[in-house]
Design a protein that fits this description.
alpha+beta; seven-stranded antiparallel β-sheet; 31 helices
């Protein structure tokens, strides 16, 4: 039993739809927390409006409410569950905290006798009220930058006059740095001050003297009721002050901090945590350190909750912060809890790292036309990746290979910039691709001292880059035949991919792989064990590296490998990589369910993924976790090591799907729908031929590879035309054009950004209704799990449409066509597993837009709405364990469920907010209505054409 015997039922507040600044790291935290409470026999009640996440899965909590996050919903739940003893608001980011404070101010917790655990309101208030926080820090002797609070425009002007420029403006009570900016010039100040005051819910900003060029650090702490404190992780931002931590490249452990300064920082963080309130739980503290030998430390802020960095710190160290923080909130002490990885040491032990992790954010600027692509105090990234290696260089390379932006790592791929002015400009004004630009600058011969002067990035990091460049230059002097073993091993130890080495040697990737296999330079797998191998770890959480052979006294040579291969039958599930627009957390939901279903069928499950924010990379989701890039070379080496029965690719979105061809080519079994069928669905010509053979209508189309071909096609197809590249996700590059000028411009633009791609031109069915169906097929029978009708007209991407389940406006004749077409297509594609088909309906004829024989973005939504575990069923079908007719489907939904997209446009000023065929939403929420007379439905329907752009 928990130490607090009074707590038997807990309400957890989730973080709602994913937005920039608050992504799926809180889904991970909430899921951990729910499991932690249930271990102690505590009843769990969850409120969260996000249908795409694992957190809102029926298996996660005793009672789940997919309701809007407001006090009205909270009161409804508290009336329904009078037995709720406590509320834990620290697992749902700023959204949950803000709702908790509002409920507290309205006296709701008091009225229902609910205790707040894991934090106290006073601690939140003191950290959010920057003036009070500053006063407290000065009182306890913690240095802060000169700053002052402004609650009016006039006061802000006075402060600026006193401090001088550059200045930092931060809005109070906001998330992801919303409303924050650096002001270099007086003429920009008025507009940025007004924006900050407007965005802050209490119309207050803090104005700081900017500490430009200072180094930035974060510490993750945990504290129990006994006042024991552990520091889980020290994270160093490679980018200096001035870039939001969520947009910074971060490294753990801290690399360029002297031990003396680190000890001072630790003491300061513990002192700060104790001074803001008497609470048990997690805490994140941010510091700035002067870049000189004095290493002065200044506090930036403290967050008394599980933060964005907590997920990263948990995955980096193997120490599950949210899980332990929950135990502390219900009264346990750190010394009473086990280390979750070793199972033999105490949770009071601080983790030790014998490896390096590098986190790189993932941006999606191409989705926000006209957006400012420079980085600053307001977070703009939509996801992140983490690389684990034995050195900073290896981890940096693995992180860049994980980004999925068609780069193979740093340099050696022919895609670097060579324009001096452009490089200097991108270094001066921090850009999203700065991680690559530094390498390009070194390659161009720009001295490190100049790069340091411009970027203020610590010289140690720049020298690491320089070493990589020198190694690349040395390797280029050899051929594949003459390259010495020690140089090849060094390149692999520093993270260079086979593909990059092939580029340097002007040969094929397969030749490099063959050569290193012959020379016995093979990937070995090491444990993330929290204790640098001092104690035996029970949890199989691995990363790969390359090591020199060890020779024993009797002359035996070997390389130490921690990953022991069992003789059980195994299944590999490929994850979906970093979150981005078009491929978000819904695919992580699918992967987790795939892993659990394969385990139920008796397989040993192996997960490969590189996203630190998600549940799929939790160390106890699969039997074995390989925290590795979803990048061919890494996957192939794991498969050669583990020898699985096959690989599941249809649950990890386009990331996993793109690897199907390579797996097929190398004779590795794809579980479920074959590569041939997956490829047929993507190849528009073959797919249309198949539709013709089955008498299924589709809009007239053509394929073009040049602007000339596209213009000739336009005469045949008639405007308006929908143009899109093949093999992309989230409608990337899709556009509706209405004349030849627009057509030519867009085609040239597309072929420049995606060279060598085929472009599809469809006659756009203006004014059509759009609908989609998801189904499970076993090759013989098809079961349609859900048909959804979009409220917006055809032409707005399905991910950006409000969609109703079941349809609200389609007659029986149309519904029958949808069912018939879906079944015919699923069988004609030899689908084994999931399939999603999209339709355009005009004049009662149902046309096929496209079919994807894989898990779609809508499967989690349909599963939650109908209360059925469809991914579990589909995985069992893929594995051949069950047939469709073996399941007794029983969907339950009264009224309608509406999938509502959520956008993050407020992060980008002057951006084009019009919606079209390219997806722009960052997340979604679910809305249940009893009937179509509901006001919310009426409002959505009335606005359906508002944002349509051609």
């Amino acid at each position: 039993m928990p130490k607090k015997k009074s707590i038997k039922s807990v309400l957890i507040i989730g973080s709602g739809p994913i937005v920039i600044g608050q992504a799926c790291e809180f889904d991970y935290a909430g899921s951990q927390s729910l499991r932690s409470l249930r271990e102690d026999g505590i009843e769990t009640i969850l409120i969260n409006s996000n249908p795409a996440t694992i957190m809102t899965d029926p298996s996660m909590a005793d009672h789940i409410y997919l309701k809007p996050l407001n006090t009205k919903s909270i009161i409804e739940i508290l009336k329904k569950h009078p037995n709720i003893d406590a509320v834990l608001p620290t697992m749902g980011g700023q959204t949950a905290l803000n709702l908790c404070i509002e409920a507290d101010e309205k006296g709701i917790w008091k009225d229902f006798g609910v205790e707040l655990i894991g934090v106290d309101i006073a601690a939140i208030n003191i950290t959010e009220d920057r003036e009070k926080f500053r006063e407290l820090m000065l009182k306890i002797g913690v240095g802060m930058a000169p700053q002052a609070t402004a609650t009016s425009f006039l006061k802000g002007k006075e402060i600026a006059q006193e401090f001088g420029f550059p200045l930092v403006i931060r809005a109070s009570y906001t998330l992801g740095g919303a409303g924050a900016s650096i002001v270099y010039k007086a003429e920009d100040f008025d507009e940025l001050l007004s924006r900050g005051l407007e965005i802050s819910p209490i119309h207050e900003v803090m104005i700081d003297k900017a500490l430009m060029g200072w180094k930035e650090y974060e510490l993750e702490l945990l504290r129990d009721k006994n006042d024991n404190v552990v520091i889980i992780c020290a994270i160093e931002n490679m980018d200096p002050m001035g870039i939001h931590t969520g947009d910074s490249i971060t490294v753990a452990p801290a690399m360029t901090l002297s031990d003396r300064t680190y000890q001072r920082m630790r003491d300061m963080a513990i002192h700060m945590m104790r001074s803001i309130g008497d609470f048990a739980g997690g805490c994140n503290v941010q510091f700035a350190v002067s870049p000189d030998e004095k290493e002065d430390i200044i506090a930036i802020e403290i967050n008394p909750r599980v933060s964005r960095s907590s997920a990263l710190a948990s995955k980096a160290t193997g120490y599950p912060i949210a899980k332990i923080a929950t135990k502390l909130a219900i009264g346990y002490h750190l010394d009473e809890l086990d280390n979750q990885i070793t199972k033999s040491t105490s949770a009071l032990f601080e983790p030790t790292l014998d490896y390096v992790i590098v986190k790189i954010p993932r941006w999606n600027f191409d989705k926000f036309e006209g957006s400012d692509r420079t980085l600053g105090l307001q977070m703009k990234s939509v996801g992140e990746v983490m690389g684990i290696g034995r050195s900073f260089q290896e981890a940096l390379h693995k992180a860049t290979q994980s980004l999925e932006i068609k780069r193979n790592g740093l340099g050696a791929d022919g895609k670097g910039l060579k324009d001096y002015d452009k490089i200097i400009s991108k270094l001066t004004i921090p850009s999203w691709d700065r991680v690559f630009i530094i390498y390009d600058a070194i390659q161009l011969g720009i001295p490190l001292s100049r790069i340091h002067e411009i970027t203020k990035i610590d010289m140690w990091f720049l020298k690491q880059y320089e070493e990589l460049h020198k190694l690349e230059k040395e390797i280029e002097t050899y051929t594949i035949e003459t390259l010495p073993r020690d140089l090849l091993l060094e390149a692999k130890q520093k993270g260079f991919a086979d593909r990059q080495i092939a580029h340097m040697l002007d040969c094929y990737e397969s030749e490099v792989h063959k050569k290193r296999t012959e020379l016995n330079i093979n990937r070995v797998f090491k444990l993330v064990d929290t204790c640098a191998a001092e104690f035996k770890a029970m949890t199989p959480y691995y990363y790969s590296t390359f090591e020199e052979e060890i020779e024993t006294a009797d002359g035996k040579r070997y390389v130490a490998n921690d990953s022991i291969v069992t003789d059980k039958k195994k299944i590999v599930v490929l994850g979906s990589g970093p979150n981005r627009i078009g491929q978000g957390i819904e695919f992580d939901y699918c992967c987790v369910h795939g892993v659990l279903a394969a385990a139920e069928c008796g397989y040993e499950t192996i997960m490969i993924n590189c996203n630190p924010e998600t549940v799929s990379t939790d160390f106890d989701t699969a039997d074995k976790l390989y925290f590795e890039p979803v990048f061919w070379e890494h996957i192939y080496d794991i498969i050669l090591h583990e020898k699985p029965e096959g690989v599941i690719v249809q649950l990890g979105g386009q990331t996993a799907l793109k690897l199907a061809e390579k797996l097929d080519k190398y004779g590795i079994k794809i579980i479920g729908t074959s590569f041939k069928a997956l490829d047929l669905a993507e190849d528009r010509g073959s797919f249309s031929k198949m539709l013709e053979e089955n008498n299924i209508p589709f809009p007239e189309f053509g394929v073009a590879e040049t602007a000339d071909e596209a213009l000739a096609l336009a005469d045949k197809l008639d405007f308006p035309l929908l143009i899109r590249p093949s093999y992309v996700l989230g409608g990337q590059g899709m556009k509706i054009v209405i004349n030849k000028k627009e057509l030519e411009e867009h085609v040239i633009d597309l072929l420049k950004s995606i060279p060598g791609n085929k472009l599809l031109l469809d006659h756009y069915l203006d004014g059509a209704i759009e609908a989609e169906a998801d189904a499970i097929c076993d090759g013989e029978d098809v079961y349609i799990i859900g048909i959804m009708e979009h409220i917006e007209p055809c032409g707005i991407h399905s991910g950006d449409s409000n969609a109703t389940l079941p349809p609200f406006n389609l007659g029986e004749f149309v519904m029958q066509q949808i069912k018939d077409h879906t079944k015919k297509i699923a069988l004609a594609l030899n689908t084994v597993g999931l399939i999603n088909v999209q339709f355009a309906i005009k004049d009662d004829i149902v046309y096929i837009i496209e079919a994807n024989p894989r898990a779609s973005r809508t499967v989690p939504f349909i599963s939650k709405a109908y209360k059925e575990p469809y991914v579990n069923y589909a995985t069992k079908v893929m594995l051949g364990e069950k047939k469709v007719k073996d399941f007794s489907f029983n969907p339950q939904l009264e009224g309608y469920a509406i999938k509502q997209p959520v956008f993050s446009f407020e992060k980008f000023h002057n951006v084009n907010k019009n919606l079209g065929p390219e997806m722009k939403s960052t997340g979604e929420s679910i809305l249940f209505i009893d009937s179509l007379k509901d006001d919310e439905f009426y409002n959505l329907y009335a606005r359906r054409k508002m944002y349509l752009s051609k």
